Amino acid sequence: MTGSGSSVFSPGEPRVTGSDRHLLCRLLDSLGKPPVRVALWSGEVVCDSPDAVATVRIRDRRTLWGLLVNPNLVFGDAYAAGRIEVDGDLLTCLEAIFEVMPLQTDSAWYTRLIHRVAHHRANTLTGSRANIHQHYYIGNDFYRLWLDDELAYTCAYYTSPDETLENAQLEKMRHVCRKLQLKPGERVVEAGCGWGALARYMARHYGVKVRAYNISEQQIRYARERAKAEGLEDSVEYIEDDYRNITGHYDAFVSIGMLEHVGSENYQTLGRVVDGCLTRNGRGLIHSVGRSRPEPMGDWIENRIFPGSYVPALSEMLQVVEPWGFSVLDVENLRLHYALTLLHWLERFDAARDQISGMYDDRFIRAWRLYLAGCSASFATGWLQLFQVLFAHPRNNNLPWTRAHLYMT
Amino acid sequence: MTGSGSSVFSPGEPRVTGSDRHLLCRLLDSLGKPPVRVALWSGEVVCDSPDAVATVRIRDRRTLWGLLVNPNLVFGDAYAAGRIEVDGDLLTCLEAIFEVMPLQTDSAWYTRLIHRVAHHRANTLTGSRANIHQHYYIGNDFYRLWLDDELAYTCAYYTSPDETLENAQLEKMRHVCRKLQLKPGERVVEAGCGWGALARYMARHYGVKVRAYNISEQQIRYARERAKAEGLEDSVEYIEDDYRNITGHYDAFVSIGMLEHVGSENYQTLGRVVDGCLTRNGRGLIHSVGRSRPEPMGDWIENRIFPGSYVPALSEMLQVVEPWGFSVLDVENLRLHYALTLLHWLERFDAARDQISGMYDDRFIRAWRLYLAGCSASFATGWLQLFQVLFAHPRNNNLPWTRAHLYMT
């Protein structure tokens, strides 16, 4: 049960007891006995694994006991604070853990209780603004360091796994436009446009008029400047407003990576907006992180990274379209594409480490690396999915006969 | 409101009254004022439409009043009995009606009540056998007259709309096999195999071993004979049993057009069977008629054509896969392909009319034509959908990188 002790004793920490070791072993059992070595604050390795891919160091007793109460939140916070460290590659370590963790989270009653009472930030009109502000206030300069040139902050589409991130983001936009069958002169509305890359792409390559909504003032400002610089200001209109305030009639509705911020309590509202703005031959596409079954969010991601977020199962996503009678035409799962996108982001983040260190403290950087690596590992091991759902009015027969057109070069 | 009267008076029927006319107009209003002419038993045309595509003749007052209580069941029964007739093309007439009918069935309370108390045939192990017997007892000779050579009695896949039915059924099987990524030597289980065409195709073209289940004794007998004649008896095993009794472990699970007979109350049971029989790298495909939102069955189809059947919305289909944590990889809607398949069946049915007349009475033939034309019109006008749902274990990463392989020639 106990491995070779070392002399790395955290100063001020009490001696490791039998209860500490017992609790750690129970924790590792409940995680499916991942192939990682765990060292406690004394340096003592508990429950060593012969095929360990990394060593996780727990620096104090408070962290160990906290992991038992709320493993998800405490691991994230302690890792960010340096009270948990990983010797070895963080992504490899997380993939090894996620690969064996039981996919059905049958968490203890106190964990579920803690999750329930944890501060859920409601997605009212002002709540959404605060939630989005928390993640994107960080500023364009930060994201520019590790996103692609177009600042696409959503899953890319790699026609092959060795494609570059830059190309894969362009391919994603092309894939979406082909699915939507955009035709010159059509009107498109985009809900949650980020820094506006897709809107510009649609206008430039498909000759459509786009109105793109976003509640992040910084992103909208960037998007407007860039559209102007690229001579697209007549065909793309960026509107700083909530998706609930969309007006007008459109031939296509598109939303890439916004649904995660909408909250399941608002899916019917979003559906009503889509129903109200799409013409009879209109098409819609919603692209969102998903799950293989309905499940609560991880506390750390929900509280520290994306407040107010919720990741739906496909059946839950359909609550946006089914009540309005839209016909689902196509669902594609791009899970492995998001694992690769996140890996590329993490590599670029690490490459820009010096610049980022000049802007943010170590806790921020550790938290951000954990978020990127943790999400990549989650997509790679089936904890997260990425669904693109294409839909249309059920009586729209003006549809391509097969999906072969998506794959023509 | 009233058109030109004619002298075609049904003998014995009472004179048409103002109430009759009023009720008919109300009925047509509730149907969205379809562009059809309706003539009553006197020959009098009520609510004539300038762009009428056909004339519907209602032969007696009982039928008219019955239509108000349960339009779906009474139309079907009365058409089969010749108490309703259509002058003009039946399919064109039904498409014109379905095209304008409000898609949200907001039926009257008494209609919903009648639907609830209508005899629903439970899909217990013996109930399913009786239900399936009722539709398929008709016999192989009948189906051979108007299905393709392989006797595929499910939606075909047309790579282009001018493809023949024979080819499109082969293309459907190829499309399914490509989605499932079958490899030589793999084991496949099929739930609800009909006359066994897909099982033979998989064994012949993909070198897999297939166990195919079906509770129709006639179909199983035909399938076995044909596999033997084609030298496939070593690779295909047809089992006369219920999907609930599937045993063994398989690399792929496939079910084409069985889910409609399963009943939503058994979706979790079906999911448990799939979960129990698929290996860790296993893939599954379920192909089923669907709807754009959850909705009760039409009484006529449910009671006269497919007892015990239920057509699910996509969110309901997902109840087969989500509780077991399967990851949905791909959903494709082939609605227009089924409209075309059914049109081809109807054309062949009509071409074989003389032979069928020698086997069945006029009521049977009229009911069957209404079923084929009605379903084709339903798919063409968005009342019905056809979903192919591909799924896999959430940790199966042995997946094609994109769907381009489905479209290589």
Task: Describe what this molecule looks like in 3D.
The structure is a homodimer of 409-residue chains. The first copy, chain A, has two domains: 18-117, no CATH class; 126-407, Vaccinia Virus protein VP39 (Rossmann fold). The first copy, chain A, is 44% helix and 16% strand. Chain A is built from 17 helices and eleven strands. Chain A has helices spanning 18-30, 61-69, 71-81, 90-100, 109-117, 125-136, 140-144, 165-180, 197-206, 217-229, 259-262, 267-277, 299-305, 314-321, 335-351, 353-359, 362-380; strands at 37-39, 45-46, 55-58, 84-87, 187-191, 209-214, 236-240, 250-256, 278-290, 327-333, 385-392. In chain A, the strands form two sheets. A seven-stranded mixed beta sheet of chain A has the order 7-6-5-8-9-11-10, sandwiched between helices. In chain A, strands 2-1-3-4 form a four-stranded mixed beta sheet. The longest helix of chain A has 19 residues, at 362-380. Chain A is elongated. At the A-B interface, helix 14 and strand 10 of A face helix 14 and strand 10 of B. Strand 10 (327-333) of chain A pairs antiparallel with strand 10 of chain B, so a sheet runs across the interface.
Q: What CATH architecture label of the largest domain in chain A applies?
A: 3-Layer(aba) Sandwich
Query: Strand pairing plus helix content of chain A: what structural class?
Result: alpha/beta
Cα(first) to Cα(last) distance of chain A is: 58 Å
Q: How much is the average pLDDT of chain A?
A: 91
Strand content of chain A: 15-25%
Q: How large, in whole angstroms, is the Cα Rg of chain A?
A: 23 Å
Largest interface: A-B, 47 and 47 residues
- The figure for the number of domains of chain A is 2
Oligomer: homodimer
